[in-house]
Amino acid sequence: MNIMKWTKYIYLLLYYGFAQYLPLSYRPVVGKPAKWIRYRLCKHIFAECGHNVNIERRANFSTGENIHIGNNSGIGFNCQVPCDIHIGNNVMMGPDCVILPANHAFADTSIPMIEQGFAPSRPTVIEDDVWIGHGVIMTPGRVVKTGSIIGAGCVLTKDFDAYSIIGGNPGKLIRLRK
């Protein structure tokens, strides 16, 4: 195994063994150093990590493989994101969000679902200037367009136009921002 891969494993070990448990970034005195430590580690873990990125306490991103995150964006407290995700610039993500990496295959009713494996995966894309509320759940392969707001507790199962405000279970268009 080459030195780059070992180095990445060391950064992952430091993140999951120590840094993920540091205080929330907005805590007085200790928040800014905790945010800085998580950011510095993730710059070495992710495929791309912009400026002023906030990886909040207990964020889970598996191995960080193929994660791209733009400037002024973040992964919220206790969130789970898949390895194959592109997060644009100026994206806010509330706590406890879950972005699912894959779905089970279920098309063949003659075979038990547990034996069908997984459906082909598609990357999740979150474009620029998006606000994802507390506890949002996204199914695999969603594209969240520029300027959209996903309301707290929404279960996002399909894609919507840019500047949409989406809420509910399943997610429905509430209104357009423009």
Structure in words:
This protein has 178 residues and is α/β, with parallel strands linked by helices. Helix content is 17%, strand content 21%. It has helices at 3-17, 31-45, and strands at 48-49, 54-55, 67-69, 74-75, 85-87, 92-93, 98-99, 124-126, 131-132, 137-138, 143-144, 149-150, 155-156, 164-167, 172-176. The strands form four sheets. The chain has a five-stranded parallel β-sheet, with helices on one face. A hairpin with a 4-residue loop joins β14 and β15. α1 packs antiparallel against α2 (31-45). The mean pLDDT is 95.
Please write out the topology.
Blueprint: H1 3-17, H2 31-45, E1 48-49, E2 54-55, E3 67-69, E4 74-75, E5 85-87, E6 92-93, E7 98-99, E8 124-126, E9 131-132, E10 137-138, E11 143-144, E12 149-150, E13 155-156, E14 164-167, E15 172-176
Parallel strand pairs: 1-3, 2-4, 3-5, 5-8, 6-9, 7-10, 8-11, 9-12, 10-13, 12-14
Antiparallel strand pairs: 14-15
Helix pairs in contact: 1-2
